[in-house]
Amino acid sequence: MEPNHEEPKLEAFDKILVALENEQIDLFRSEFLELHPYDQASIFDEVTEDRRQQIYTYLSPQEMSEVIEHFDFEDVSPLIIEMNPTYAAHILAEMSTDDAVDIMNNFEKDQVASYLTLMHKEEADEIKDLLHYEEKTAGSIMTTEFVVVNKNMTIREAMVHLRTQAPDAETIYYVFVVDEDKHLVGVISLRDLIISEEDWLVSDIMSDRVVYVSVGEDQEVIAKIMRDYDFLALPVVDFKKHILGIITVDDIMDVMEEEASDDYSKLAAVSDMDRADLTPFDAAKKRLPWLIILLFLGMVTASLIGRFENTLDQVAILAVFIPVIAGMAGNTGTQALAVTVRGIATGDISKEGKLKRLKKETLTGLITGITCGLIITGVVMLWFGHVYLGMIVGFSILCSLIVATIAGSFLPLLMHKMNIDPAVASGPFITTINDIISIIIYFGTATIFMDLLI
Amino acid sequence: MEPNHEEPKLEAFDKILVALENEQIDLFRSEFLELHPYDQASIFDEVTEDRRQQIYTYLSPQEMSEVIEHFDFEDVSPLIIEMNPTYAAHILAEMSTDDAVDIMNNFEKDQVASYLTLMHKEEADEIKDLLHYEEKTAGSIMTTEFVVVNKNMTIREAMVHLRTQAPDAETIYYVFVVDEDKHLVGVISLRDLIISEEDWLVSDIMSDRVVYVSVGEDQEVIAKIMRDYDFLALPVVDFKKHILGIITVDDIMDVMEEEASDDYSKLAAVSDMDRADLTPFDAAKKRLPWLIILLFLGMVTASLIGRFENTLDQVAILAVFIPVIAGMAGNTGTQALAVTVRGIATGDISKEGKLKRLKKETLTGLITGITCGLIITGVVMLWFGHVYLGMIVGFSILCSLIVATIAGSFLPLLMHKMNIDPAVASGPFITTINDIISIIIYFGTATIFMDLLI
């Protein structure tokens, strides 16, 4: 079901396209500027470059900057480049500093330099400051447009200050409080400000247990803090607790979406840049590196089975159960992997300790192994009519499931310990490892009990 | 790296635990109530039931309700049940209605009824209203504590109204505007209110293009709207556009986290309730249904290979390449699946059309298939020294990869069309289907060209 606010929007879209066609600049501006910037941005998705060039001449850099802020950052670069450079530089200067930085991080060094030259020095300096910060840290997602008040102000003074700052600030719903030396000492919500008496002091009503993050903090940690504490904004400080910027909840929602896509893509061994709108050639280029690695790992499995060619020659029916044993090992391994990766991400695991986690997974593997082992033994005996083969297949499933469960939980824990993102331990990767382990178990067992099979 | 606001927190934790031990109620209250509710909640994770019972007697239901709101909803039920029922009912009545409803949705019908009886009629009625709404819809996540103003009020009147409502409302940063018949006609931000002249009318400064959702809307769609438009709150209306409630950004962050976990878990075929903190028996119980289904699908693969026993008896070395062919088909299928599921979730795919998507994936499969097919043909010829076998394995990989890529993208598209959540087309499931397809291709080809192999 589509949200029911779509219909009036589509009507407005049509009017705007007609106005463009007839070059009615006033009609275009009145209809276009009524729309929410996100809807304005979606119009750009649907028109040709000629129309876009026309729109650039109809809108001021300031108006255009709001549209640009509602694009995905990867999609913006081609738009910026197709614009007149001076116009583009104006737009970048008008945007929230954090968004401008995100966009410019996609450009080559000389492009960045030329846009910075075309801006006023003040705005260029603000952007330059933020360009230093590493991607995916607090510094790279914070904005420097925030409101601070001094702790010795009265509520009346604070409100006056707030009113003058409101048009430029990214949010005014949290106001951060500093002392004379610009140290962050408290926070006060606009809600508290408007229900307080005008001649009280800011320091009387502020909360002095303010939660903050350091400028190098990882964005995933910040997302967790903002979600857990239900904050709308979070201050970012340097090592001396001077406030450098704030992170707002809208940026954090983008981070959450990005991190979720990221983890999901890694489990499937696709690059997070492998999006549905790529051309087949680009998509193949993104996927092939993974596939070729997995292909060579698969050849290792093949040459392993090759070593048991003698066994196979004598009892060809052994081959029949290779996929089910390898498959089951792969499946349990992926399950254990996913639970562990999520547990690390949500923090559940650090609470209870890693060794305890491994013990739990071993026991889980034992239970699922015994259950699946018994079922398959019965099925092979009844369906295929081989008693001993059934027992060997059942025993192999039991052992494979235990080992695969342990491997699936151990690998991400190890990676986490080594400060590698555990989500990189992708599904297909763990599956291939478990293929190899389970086949050694299966053919090993079968070779030992060969006498029973012939 | 841990966020650097942890240290003062840990100090406070210690003081609180000592105060509990010494039964110093005043010290406990002064330290505990200074903490953010999220930190208060984490103390409950660390103490025994006796200490918790002690805390319940130290805190009023109203104070306790704020702590409870910062728990995961699944973790709250045991706490509520261990409390004195009257105290628990008070807490549920004091909470935001939406959170109370989320908690009570985990209870049995007779438990819900008994808590409702212990509340004041007014609060019980509010909760009863929301309990009707289906899970994961706007109705189930909205709160009924919001502020509306009439469009004919002056800014001064609106601010007075706002100040009186502020303590109870979930947010006051967006104020929704209604006409005489309580229809939603506009929205106004607190930012606009405080920078406007006091004798202007609300209708003069409100935005009348207000985005809203209907009460039955899916929570995932709502999360996308709030993220795209950067809203802090979104109004929920009935079919006559009367405002029923609002959804705030903090609830949406929880929804995003839940949906992300959900999709991730489904790709790995684990239930989303399979969390790292379950006992091994419960974890096994959650995973076994999937494993047993996959086990029987695996037996289908086995019996398929069984049909080729003749072929296998003559050329046992064919068995060696079963895992690599099946594995590669599984891997490409999972990649195509993940890209398609994400594409549906982000809306990229509805834009470009499903047929176009399938064509693209087919071409991607062709490119990856040719590449991997050529590589493996070369490897088998050189490494294993079998020319014709190499060609048969290479050809099988080529065909399997094309079919697997199409299957991986077709299945979620089909499910989406049938209104089934496409994420249910889990990784192991598509992998097993692709196992079967690839093995038919491999043994079919090998049987046809048998003469070349012997």
Automatic annotation (TrEMBL), chains A, B:
Domain CBS intervals: 142-205, 206-264
TM regions (residue ranges): 288-308, 314-341, 362-385, 391-415, 427-450
Protein name: Magnesium transporter MgtE
GO CC annotation, single: plasma membrane
Location (main, coarse): membrane
Family, as annotated: Belongs to the SLC41A transporter family.
SMART domains for this protein: CBS, MgtE_N
Organism: Halalkalibacillus sediminis
NCBIfam families with a match to the protein in the record: mgtE (TIGR00400)
Gene Ontology molecular functions: magnesium ion transmembrane transporter activity; metal ion binding
Lineage top rank: taxon: Bacteria
Keywords: CBS domain, Cell membrane, Magnesium, Membrane, Metal-binding, Transmembrane, Transmembrane helix, Transport
Protein's job: Acts as a magnesium transporter.
Keyword Calcium set for record: no
Membrane topology (UniProt): Multi-pass membrane protein
InterPro entries with a match to the protein in the record: CBS_dom (IPR000644), CBS_dom_sf (IPR046342), Mg_transptr_MgtE_intracell_dom (IPR006668), MgtE_N_sf (IPR038076), MgtE_transporter (IPR006669), SLC41_membr_dom (IPR006667), SLC41_membr_dom_sf (IPR036739)
Oligomeric form and interacting partners: Homodimer.
Compartments, record wording: Cell membrane; Membrane
Pfam families per the UniProt record, alphabetical: CBS (PF00571), MgtE (PF01769), MgtE_N (PF03448)
Gene: mgtE
